[in-house]
UniProtKB/TrEMBL annotation:
GO molecular function: ATP binding; ATP hydrolysis activity
Database matches in Pfam families: ABC_tran, DrrA1-3_C
InterPro entries reported for this sequence: AAA+_ATPase, ABC_transporter-like_ATP-bd, ABC_transporter-like_CS, DrrA1/2-like_C, P-loop_NTPase
UniProt KW keywords: ATP-binding, Nucleotide-binding, Transport
Domain called ABC transporter: residue spans: 4-230
Family: Belongs to the ABC transporter superfamily.
Record PANTHER family: ABC TRANSPORTER RELATED (PTHR43335:SF11), ABC TRANSPORTER, ATP-BINDING PROTEIN (PTHR43335)
Protein name: ABC transporter ATP-binding protein
Length: 302
């Protein structure tokens, strides 16, 4: 079932399109990463999809409802820099947010307790938010976005400002939550998108450059590449590798020799056979899959 679709979505500020004719759709039960560099239009896209700002043009359809309808009751949203009442406890804050979402006091308390346990904060439920770590605050922010049981959870750069411990806490939580709720999150940290997402939307200068599942995108942009290290002069070994039939390109970077090949199986056989026959001082040999950074750069340049 298609949960959300955008068609030619555009948002213009000061005559400049920040979001430029963006079109995509995704199904429920997925974790989708909206990735791109700072200034690509990720936050504006999320704020427009969530109903916090109106598009200049284009349409948004949510769960088969009327185009550009108010879907805020079905969406949970966490901004990049959430604000909390530091004097409140985590539980008090969630109950307060539940009441703002028109839940009864009894239901707000039950939802707060359940969500605090879900995000791993039950032991800190009565602790003042001002005493929470960055990771704890972000997990509390995710809990508040889920207080009204939305169909879609939107997270704007959920780990960009966290230390390594907090980042790991939130990524682990997202990995667990995606089994229960559809997640759309923005990030400029490509490794995070690679780790937790099922599908990608590659955004650059307000436009969607590519979209699809991780598997499909990797197959589309896959480059057969081998990374090698040697004892001795890398330039000499580069010349030897370039002479092999299936090697198409080579370069030296940070003490490693990288080669792209036209046939991975044949090239691997030829390289290892030559290394054995000529007794090369080969110290490492690895086959690298195309990284998300590689895919993004190829999509932007294409």
């Amino acid at each position: 079932m298609i949960l959300l679709s955008a068609d030619n979505l555009t948002k213009i500020y000061d005559r400049q399109p920040v979001v430029d004719r963006v079109s995509f759709k995704f199904e429920s039960g997925k974790c989708i990463a909206l990735i791109g560099p700072n200034g690509a239009g990720k936050t504006t896209t999320l704020r427009t999809l969530s109903g916090l700002i109106k598009p200049t043009s284009g349409t948004i359809t949510f769960a088969g409802k009327k185009q550009n309808a108010d879907n805020r009751e079905s969406i949970g949203y966490l901004p990049q820099h959430p604000v909390f009442f530091k004097w409140m406890s985590g539980k008090e804050f969630l109950v307060y947010v539940g009441r703002l979402a028109h839940l009864s006091k009894q239901k707000s308390v039950k939802r707060a307790e359940k969500l605090l346990e879900r995000v791993g904060l039950s032991e800190s439920a009565n602790k003042r938010i001002g005493k929470y770590s960055g990771g704890m605050k972000q997990r509390l922010g995710i809990a508040q976005a889920m207080i009204h049981q939305p169909k879609l959870l939107m997270l704007d750069e959920p780990v960009s400002s966290l230390d390594p411990i907090g980042r790991r806490e939130v990524l682990t939580l997202m990995e667990e939550l995606k089994n229960d709720i559809t997640i759309l999150f923005s990030t400029h940290i490509l490794s995070d998108a690679d780790e937790v997402s099922d599908e990608l939307l590659l955004l650059h200068e307000g436009r969607i450059m590519e979209s699809g599942s991780m598997t499909d995108l990797r197959e589309r942009y896959q480059t057969a590449k081998i990374e090698l290290s040697f004892e001795g002069d890398l330039i000499v070994y580069r010349e030897k590798l370039n002479a092999l039939k299936h090697v198409t390109n080579s370069w030296i970077d940070r003490g490693y020799l990288h080669v792209t090949v036209s046939d991975m199986t044949a090239a691997r056989h030829d390289i290892l056979a030559a290394a054995s026959a000529e007794e090369w001082a080969l110290t490492s040999f690895s086959i690298n899959r195309t990284s998300l950074e590689d895919m993004f750069m190829k999509a932007v340049k294409s």
